[in-house]
Amino acid sequence: MADKIKNAKIVFVVGGPGSGKGTQCEKIVAKYGYTHLSSGDLLRAEVASGSDRGKQLQAIMQKGELVPLDTVLDMIKDAMIAKADVSKGYLIDGYPREVKQGEEFEKKIGAPALLLYIDAKGETMVKRLMKRGETSGRADDNEETIKKRLDLYYKATEPVIAYYEKRGIVRKINSELPVDEVFAIVEKAIDELK
Ligand SMILES: Nc1ncnc2c1ncn2[C@H]1C[C@H](O)[C@@H](COP(=O)(O)OP(=O)(O)O)O1
Ligand SMILES: [Mg+2]
User: In this predicted model, what pLDDT tens digit does every residue of 72-128 receive, in sequence order?
Assistant: First the structure.
């Protein structure tokens, strides 16, 4: 089963909360037929299911902390295998959050061909998340948790970007621009993969 995804195109989509990862992934899915896997969405779906694991996850996420590595990875892998026959590639959104997560992903699943670094300023991310929080229903889109998520993001994710930069697969995308202009830059990076 797992070898079905061994040769798949894998794109890590990394950026702070509210930087626009989900927005850009949606557009990549529409144009390129990739499968979009947001680790956050997978986790929230588990929470919504009301399972015991979901309840434990909810407590962790509400505090703005990171969920255990194996849990996230197993959920991503299962979701990838489920889409192996129809997927032109995979967008792994919001993962890895830490260098160790990236290493484990490569051991268990495969190597990324590209890392899209969706980059927006801290104040922009806060503004967007506060706005999203008005309608998203997400427990973590509130001012206090947003600050914590941003702090954690800077600490944990910057080493991730440095790690993949050494391997030459990072493309930094200016996400301060309007959505379609951001996507024009994203398209170039994806087109280069073919
Ligand atoms: N380039 C852009 N310009 C303005 N608003 C943007 C934007 N990209 C995303 N947004 C909005 C849409 C959402 O309400 C909010 C967060 O975007 P998102 O795609 O959900 O971010 P992420 O998935 O990185 O947390 O910001
Ligand atoms: Mg998102």
Answer: 898 899 899 999 999 999 999 988 988 999 999 999 999 999 999 999 999 999 999
Q: Is 18 in the pocket of ligand 1 (CB under 6 A)?
A: yes
Q: Give the pair of three-digit tokens for residue 122.
A: 């801290």
CA of 38 to the centre of ligand 2 (A): 7
Spatial separation of the C-alpha atoms in residues 149 and 66, rounded to whole Å: 9
Distance 116 CA to ligand 2 centre (A): 14
State the angle between helix axes of 39-49 and 52-62 in degrees (0 to 180), rounded to the nearest 10. 130
- Candidates 174, 140, 128, 163; CA nearest to 67 is 140
Residue 6, pLDDT > 80, answer no
* pLDDT for the residue numbered 160: 95
Closest ligand 1 atom to residue 132 Cα is 14
Please check whether residue 16 is in contact with residue 96, taking contact to mean a CB–CB distance below 8 angstroms. Answer: no
ipTM of the complex: 0.95
Q: How far is CA 194 from CA 80, 114, 185, 187, in A?
A: 20, 12, 16, 11
pTM (predicted TM-score): 0.89
Q: Which residue has tokens 């197993």?
A: 74
